[in-house]
Amino acid sequence: MRNADLLQRSLNAVWHPCTQMKQHAGDGALPLVPIARGEGVWLHDFDGRRYLDGISSWWVNLFGHCNPRINAALRKQLDELEHVILAGFTQQPVVELSERLATLTGGALGHCFYASDGASATEIALKMSLHSWRNRGRSEKQNFLCLEGSYHGETVGALAVTDVAIFRDAYAPLVRAAATVPTPDARRARDGETPADTARRAALSLETHLTAHHQNIAALIVEPLIQCASGMAMYDPEYLRHARALCDHYEVHLICDEIAVGCGRSGTFFAYEQANIKPDFLCLSKGISGGYLPLSIVLSTDAVYAAFYDDATSRGFLHSHSYTGNALACRAALATLDIFAEDEVLAANRVLAAHLGECLAPLAAHPCVRHFRQRGMIAAFDVVSDDPQFSSRFYRAALDREILLRPIGNTVYVMPPYVISREECAFLAGRAEQALDAALSP
Ligand SMILES: *Cc1c(COP(=O)(O)O)cnc(C)c1O
Asked: Is 117 near ligand 1, meaning CB less than 6 Å away?
């Protein structure tokens, strides 16, 4: 197999996600990159080229490609049970995973509901919230609230709480869009404001909205600390403290979508921990299976669970997906959690994140860079450029330099697997700086 063979067959047969397919066609087209194998942070093609996976393959990979420990756990599971229906049946991996996740929330969220992708987790949380209010005689609570610039997935239901025009506009007739409240994004700081001040100002707007509309609002959904897909907007934990207090006061559920920021990405296992709060619902996906298999989970409180526990079938939560609680995916998640425990990953990541920040310091000081920011294993900066092609120019310049980075508009971010070495951090940062200069001077 050569790159060229697979590339052409892929363009004929595969409709690639998040892609205008025409950009891959013709002279000077954006290259499609065939990958033959992965090892650690590296992706290798068929022709002897390699790429450092600086975005963890869309934020899912935590401990490297083809991790020997996760591979071994999956091989063993494969010989015992691959999958079984989860309605009326149960199995060891799903039970153990549910117990361990509940423990990680300190017992606050003791009930795990399973699906296969992040957008479904969002929809499950929305449905559960609305239905639980309905079961408690509050059927007027039918609306949701999200932050400006929020991203919670792209299925029709999830688009209701995704405030990203390019993903939503074409489908507007299908979508019952939720109301948005101002983002606490620290870049919105007014003169002299600290990030906490900016967060408090956004919380005041939330309070105003809730005061007027709380009777009809089922839940507020947020990405704690970092709004990832709309450009790695980072904000102070103060916002979450206020949001929690306001949701309690106005009887509105708080849904934390930690699909991207969970599993240690932000520095703590769950990002909400940094605000010392607990949500009513927690959505997990992406990193939870180590980047191996599609898996998503919605954790909820005893109070939510109790609202469905009844003699009447229709008061139950009847939502289902064929692959709910897939044993292999749960086993991958358990192997991932084992690595967190055995290697004390959160402590190791504190050192690694500091090192990554040092490596990126020259980029932060680059004359065209604004708002360099970092939280845990995510670092991002905005590039001053009027070039509408900046993002694809940078992406190509990075690939030419053996690194995979996909800017979001003019925001460049790095979000590497946690197994990246110190040398690889320096390599990533150095090559990113070269790519930036190349993209800025075409
Ligand atoms: C990726 C993402 C989703 C959607 O997950 P999919 O598996 O792509 O459907 C939802 N919320 C957040 C915060 C995400 O980053």
From this structure: yes
Q: How remote is the CA of residue 18 from the centroid of ligand 1, in Å?
A: 13
The CATH number linked to 197 is 3.40.640.10
Q: Is the CB of 221 under 6 A from ligand 1?
A: no
Domains of the chain: total: 2
pLDDT per residue as tens digits for the range 367-395: 999 999 999 999 999 999 999 999 999 99
Q: How far is the CA of 134 from the centre of ligand 1 (A)?
A: 27
Determine the atom of ligand 1 nearest the C-alpha atom of 117.
7
Single out the residue in 342, 367, 399 at which a domain terminates. 342
Summarize pLDDT for 158-169 with one digit per residue, the tens: 999 999 999 999
Residue 304's φ and ψ, nearest 5 degrees, are: -65, -45
CA distances from 17 to 14, 55, 217, 414 (A): 9, 16, 33, 21
Indicate yes or no: pTM above 0.70. yes
Whether residue 123 has its Cβ less than 6 Å from ligand 1: no
Report if residue 23 sits inside a domain. Answer: no
Three-state secondary-structure class, residue 293: coil
Structure-token match 């899912």, residue found:
60
- Residue 265 near ligand 1, beta carbon < 6 Å: no
Residue 53 has phi, psi (to 5 degrees) of -80, 85
Pair of tokens at residue 132: 């639980």
